[in-house]
Give the backbone structure.
Amino acid sequence: DQQVKQNSPSLSVQEGRISILNCDYTNSMFDYFLWYKKYPAEGPTFLISISSIKDKNEDGRFTVFLNKSAKHLSLHIVPSQPGDSAVYFCAASPEGGSEKLVFGKGTKLTVNP
Amino acid sequence: DVKVTQSSRYLVKRTGEKVFLECVQDMDHENMFWYRQDPGLGLRLIYFSYDVKMKEKGDIPEGYSVSREKKERFSLILESASTNQTSMYLCASILSGEGHEQYFGPGTRLTVT
């Protein structure tokens, strides 16, 4: 039973355009959400997070939006750059600060020059 | 900066061999994790440890064991390697409490022939 779903295995966008990566979750006890970026043959690196008390968090070109009622979050990258090409994982943490994260299966983003 | 290191980036082992994967973190984190990453399956949790000598099974513990004798070191052991254990193995650590992210090592690409 997948509690965190990334329904698009891949996404392709043009350099300079917006990339929107989506993530849905089923467990209403999740209250902290994270996005990780992973290049081939490297470990995932933390990108941005959002707490359930917020609906938006921004860091430079990256913005995460959270819609709690829809149990949906999205990562916006504007403008997209070729170096953003990677696999992006959405992860969620249950209420109470559990250190154990639940990961989605990832979306492979390709930004074309 | 948190540093998580893994003993090998690439490893080739034969079926039936006992394999040790080592992970060390330098930030005094209580919690450490072992994942494997396979295409289309995302990150799957094998085992985690929230303290020295403490361990808990993750989602796919079969065929694996772990050891945590010191706080900074978490070892993954493949008792008798099989070809279906060919994968990318990722170690992570995290501070206890809310609002933290897991830090990942660079990964070990294990091939079992």
Observations:
- Chain B is about 0% helix and 55% strand.
- Chain B touches chain A at residues 4, 9, 31, 33, 37, 40-43, 45, 48, 50, 88, 90, 92, 94-107, 109 (CB under 8 Å).
- The first strand of chain B starts at residue 4 and ends at 6.
